[in-house]
Amino acid sequence: MAVTDAQVRKMSEELSKSNNLSRAALKSGMDRKTARKYRDAGQVPSQLVQPRSWRTRNDPFEEDWADMTVMLTDAPELEAKALFEHLVGLRPGRYEEGQVRTFQRRVREWRALHGPPKTVFFPQQHRPGEAMQTDFTWATELGVTIAGEPYEHMLCHAVLPYSNWEWATICFSESFVAMSEGVQAAVFRLGRTPEWHQTDNSSSATHRVSDGNGKRTFNDDYASLMRHLDMKPRTTGIGEKEQNGDVEALNGALKRRLKQHLLLRSSRDFDSVEDYRSWLEGVLQLANGLRSGKMKEELAAMSMLRVDRLPSYKAVDVGVSKWSTIRVKRNTYSVPSRLIGERLKVRIHDDRLEVFHGTTLQASIERLRARHEHRIDYRHVIWSLVRKPWAFERYRYRDDLFPSLTFRQAYDALCDALSGRNADIAYLRVLHLAASTLEADVELALECLLSEGELPLPDAVKALVVPLQTPAVPDMKPFDPCLKVYDGLLVEGVAK
Questions:
Q1: Do residues 80 and 109 make contact, with C-beta atoms less than 8 angstroms apart?
Q2: Which of 59, 58, 41 has its CA nearest to residue 50?
Q3: How confident is the model at residue 493 (pLDDT cuts 50, 70, 90)?
């Protein structure tokens, strides 16, 4: 067994006490001859090790290594594994898969000794109150559920690099609306604004119109937001996300913190989005409380916020087609049919659309994320469909007229028992009943009929639903007021 530095130091210590080499060697756990060697050398084992300048085995790549270095010199971005696979193809049967690690080490050594210079990253010294960095990060990996349903979402994450104070808002896309909501939530919580706001080159802040030197220019909406908040906008270089390094690093730290607090909570399920948002803000407040020292410096260096909050939505005017639909952001949504031919104002929030006729809210619709999608509410069109049932068979958005799997199963059962036109008419009458009463009651009635093997005909469904919709009239006696009580109160007031 090799002698360690600690053993030699122990031997030297014992030798200085007794001047007896045998006893010192015994107490330090080494042979007397070994002890004499290190006593005479006056050095510990690590100081006696000489760097090896020779190979202990033959170099398996010696014959081809010169060609490999030429290729690495011509194309420094070549990866070692790809180069090894190329070498195997040139020399079939000469090299084995198990040699790839050795080859990778050789390439790594060559890059360190002869490779091109690498990019140097320079740590920056942040100044209090100088800038806020904002970035988007996916939070679906947290595994949060809302009422048992998976909740796919992002976080708009704002950070002050000097103190690492942070705030985050729930969003669903890297849109300007989400950026506006996130930035304003952060600065209005602070009550102050830094000099700069920094983000990457996402479309929420910039667009592709070039000014001739490769830089992206700011969107009008984003530039207007920065002017309103009295902050100067700046972006990272294109492809240089490390310039937003503080918020990029804290994205991961934030999600790790949230995962830990979810474990402490013992559940990832929340009753509503508002409950989840409240919990998220509580975690952020707790983390920011630990940064109060540097935050005092930040707040002292920032400007007071002297403006009102801008609405976090984009408003557009749309017309209602004869199909009772509107087109917003290349997606189709249905609206009440009484609005056909009217012009509506739509407020586009990050998670929903608010549809107004004049100043009156007509509908609030969950916003679609993709493009060329559609969301049709059967309640908006069923009144016309029951009068034109032949339109149902080839209706472009027919799949949207099945509110749940139960309704689809009921339609399939009707198709199996009735002819096509009669099945359509029967189903539309059931759907009309759902629009007229409560969808949940109709769905429950359909489940009962299907489970008992009965055909879900409209009259059978109505027989189960209508009694649920008829409230019992309470038996109340007529109220006979006694006005003398009030006279007594008046007399009492005069007496006082």
A1: no
A2: 41
A3: low
| Contact predicate 270/146, CB 8 Å | yes
Q: What is the DSSP string of 117-129?
A: PPPPP------TT
* Residue 182: other Cβ atoms inside 10 A: 26
> Hunting for tokens 């038996």 — which residue is that?
475
Contact 455, 461 (CB under 8 A): no
pLDDT of 243: 46
Taking the C-alpha atoms of residue 221 and residue 204, their distance in angstroms, rounded to an integer, is 9
Return the pLDDT at 371: 87
Instruction: Give dist(CA 331, CA 70) in Å, integer.
Output: 55
Residue type, 104: Q
CA distances from 122 to 16, 114, 200, 235, 446 (A): 50, 23, 19, 18, 67
Identify the band that residue 220 occupies on the pLDDT scale cut at 50, 70 and 90.
confident
Q: Token digits for 373?
A: 């999608």
Is the pLDDT assigned to residue 190 strictly greater than 90? yes
Burial of 241: CB neighbours in 10 Å, binned 0-12, 13-18, 19+: middle
Q: Which tokens hold the place of 141?
A: 């990996």
Give the residue among 183, 188, 146 at the shortest CA–CA distance from 277. 146
Bridge-based pairing state of the strands 374-375 and 360-366: unpaired
- Quote the CA–CA distance of 385 and 380 in Å, as a whole number: 10
Instruction: Quote the pLDDT of residue 240.
Output: 45
Distances from the Cα of 371 to the Cαs of 109, 159, 329, 330, 349, in angstroms?
Answer: 50, 31, 7, 6, 16
Give the pLDDT of residue 239: 44
Neighbours of 402 (CB within 10 A): 17
Backbone angles phi, psi at 370, to 5 degrees: -80, -175
Among 87-96, 278-287, 314-323, where is mean pLDDT lowest?
Answer: 87-96
Average pLDDT of span 371-386:
94
Pick the closest to residue 336 from 346, 354, 344, 324 (CA basis). Answer: 324
Phi, psi of 264 (to 5 degrees): -65, -30
Q: Give, in order, the Cα–Cα distances in Å from 430 to each of 337, 389, 458.
A: 20, 12, 5
Structure tokens at 435: 């629009």
> Which pLDDT score is estimated for 242?
44
C-alpha dist (Å) from residue 107 to 70, 80, 117, 443:
12, 6, 15, 66
